[in-house]
Amino acid sequence: MAVTVLVNLIVTLGMLYVVPTGLRLIDRTGFRRTARLWPLLAAPGALSLWLPRGAPAAVAAALYAAATWGLAARAPARLLRARTRTGALLPAPAEAAVLTALVSPAVAGSALVAERAGYRLFGFDLDILALTVPHFHFAGFTAALVAGLVCRTAGAGPLWRPDAGAAAGAGTGAPLARWAAYSVPAGTFLVLIGYFVGDRAELVGAVVLTTGMWAVALTTWRGIRPGARDRTTRALLATSAGVLAATMLLALWWATGEATGLVHPTLTWMAATHGLGNALGFALCSLLAWRRLTMDRQEMTR
Hints:
Keywords: Membrane, Transmembrane, Transmembrane helix. This protein has helices at residues 2-26, 32-50, 55-72, 74-86, 93-117, 126-153, 173-197, 199-224, 231-260, 267-300. With 302 residues, it is mostly helical. The chain has one domain. It has ten helices and no strands. 80% of the residues lie in helices and 0% in strands. The relative contact order is 0.11.
């Protein structure tokens, strides 16, 4: 019961705060209306978490799922515009991460409807469906979003300083950030495929996702944090990087244990450590830091 409450609180945070804040960071103008309306659209989904399984909870979850699918429907048009603009077959790494962020809530929303209805979607246990919801709000949406933001800015020296030349992040930081922006979406997709294929495929996805998130953490620490103008923002970035290094190690341990039979944490323990750490230490701290960085940039360009 305590774990269910914890997971519900984490998911509620993702629905009501993380997604709309992230949309503003992707494109403050293009997603302005969606971000402003999102808490209202997400409220039924948050309510469904606290209702008993059944028709009322499933209907409330379906209203939220409709919003997430509406958000995902914007990804193909965005991809087409990027291809028209650049002529490249594949999107740039930062754009690939953003596209992943846009479609991830739809996976979470679909799992939520099935779990709240008590329906074993694709044969998955209801507990797995319940954990898919926070996973694709945080490992899907937030992780991909932050990887994209890091990739956008890495390699430009101290962040958004007018006098920044070729500086700390300009060497190894940029390739590392590009790896993160591609590997986080790839790892997320492989983990999803692993749900269907088996534990060993999920382990491959966990390895790819973990290396990508460690690249995000390292680039944040070395390339983004030093350029922040105030101590609070630097502290938030440092916290997000440090927590991410630890929580992804737990994820790798769990996936290895599932695939090989070695001793590993239980899902309950993972929710209380990996899940809570990612939600508060990584996602929340990252979004708060990037909001402050964005506000600093707007002030400097006025």
